[in-house]
């Protein structure tokens, strides 16, 4: 009994000390994993800039046959300790089980949004309207009693005057918890926050499974990792290239002001012939590669690739059954990587590899014809 009381007392002291700085909670309610990861890096930078403990939200997933989104605990995929080396964090589960009971009672739960959202209630954030918004907050039995519109404030963590405005307008002692309807971050990830990827380290489970796959299936040589984005939804998205020069994660290759080149249709949806040519060029550069690992949302092109390299001692493979997080972890360990400039899935791999100093490139970028012309 004495031991339990001591632990409870220590937890209470910790909670009260955190209250001095406050907490930041948000729903990662835009897109799938790649988009959520971009937003996470921005939210991490923002929480540090306003000196609030970041509550690590579960990852929102959409599974076939399920009407509502599924919330997967943050630490299922990533280790917490590396993040704590950058800034104070706590999982949503721990926050609700301990901290929220003391500093965020149900009658004081207020949702924050830039301006009102469409929904059942007028002049409201309607924080629980729609999927995944409703299922996300319901997972933790959270309801909101009112809304706060924080506009014209924004979440540029590198604007010191803006961050000062946040701390003055919403001081932690009066507002111990800022609960955002969506992520307080931009998409794609702000350039200044890209480096934060180095604190996002895969969980021991994901790392173990990815390394076992590599050891059991690709031993005795290096491997080339490639990401093919070619599902029906992606084909439609790429049709907007002419009107969207910075579509999705395109700034990772063309630059945030298109200063590194022009976004083209082939960069978004490369033709089979282009893919095969680029793979063969990569194989010439890296002589020790004996395997090609393919990750894709739709067509892995396994048979096409096997046919194209049938005269080489090369094995083409994918992970079965499909597991996007293991795909990401495996791609991050490849000897070389080729990905899709426009995809946030590729962007995650590219940031991780950059943090490790590993080489990567994008499909159809830079423009080889233009590059050769400039050389002449």
Automatic annotation (TrEMBL):
CDD domains: O-FucT-1. Keywords: Carbohydrate metabolism, Disulfide bond, Endoplasmic reticulum, Fucose metabolism, Glycoprotein, Glycosyltransferase, Notch signaling pathway, Transferase. Pfam families: O-FucT. Pathway: Protein modification; protein glycosylation. Its EC number is 2.4.1.221. One of its GO terms (molecular function) is peptide-O-fucosyltransferase activity. The keyword Nucleus does not apply. PANTHER family: GDP-FUCOSE PROTEIN O-FUCOSYLTRANSFERASE 1. Belongs to the glycosyltransferase 65 family. This is GDP-fucose protein O-fucosyltransferase 1.
């Amino acid at each position: 009994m004495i031991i339990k009381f001591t632990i409870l007392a220590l937890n209470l002291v910790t909670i009260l000390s955190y209250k001095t700085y406050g907490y930041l909670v948000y729903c990662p309610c835009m897109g799938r994993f790649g988009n959520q990861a971009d937003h996470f890096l921005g939210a991490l930078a923002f929480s540090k800039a306003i000196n609030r403990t970041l509550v690590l939200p579960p990852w929102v997933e959409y599974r076939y046959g399920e009407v509502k989104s599924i919330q997967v605990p943050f630490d299922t995929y990533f280790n917490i300790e590396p993040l704590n080396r950058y800034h104070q964090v706590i999982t949503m589960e721990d926050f609700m089980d301990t901290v929220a009971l003391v500093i965020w009672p149900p009658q004081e739960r207020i949702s924050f949004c830039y301006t009102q959202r469409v929904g059942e209630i007028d002049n409201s954030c309607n924080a629980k309207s729609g999927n995944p918004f409703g299922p996300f907050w319901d997972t933790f039995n959270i309801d909101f009693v009112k809304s706060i519109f924080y506009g014209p404030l924004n979440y540029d963590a590198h604007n010191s005057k803006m961050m000062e405005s946040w701390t003055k307008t919403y001081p932690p002692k009066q507002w111990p918890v800022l609960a955002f309807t969506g992520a307080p971050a931009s998409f794609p990830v702000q350039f200044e926050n890209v480096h934060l990827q180095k604190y996002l380290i895969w969980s021991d489970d994901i790392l173990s499974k990815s390394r076992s796959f590599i050891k059991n299936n690709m031993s005795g040589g290096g491997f080339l990792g490639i990401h093919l984005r070619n599902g029906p939804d992606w084909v439609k998205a790429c049709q907007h290239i002419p009107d969207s020069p910075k579509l999705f994660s395109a700034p990772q290759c063309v630059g945030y002001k298109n200063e590194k080149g022009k976004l083209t249709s082939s960069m978004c949806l490369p033709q089979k012939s282009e893919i095969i040519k680029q793979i063969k060029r990569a194989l010439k550069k890296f002589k020790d590669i004996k395997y090609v690992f393919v990750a894709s949302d739709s067509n892995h092109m396994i048979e096409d690739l096997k046919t194209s390299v049938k005269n080489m001692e090369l094995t083409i493979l994918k992970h079965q059954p499909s597991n996007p997080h293991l795909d990401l972890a495996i791609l991050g360990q490849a000897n070389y990587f080729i990905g899709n400039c426009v995809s946030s899935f590729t962007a995650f791999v590219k940031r991780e590899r950059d943090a490790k100093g590993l080489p990567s490139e994008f499909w159809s970028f830079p423009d080889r014809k233009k590059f050769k012309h400039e050389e002449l």
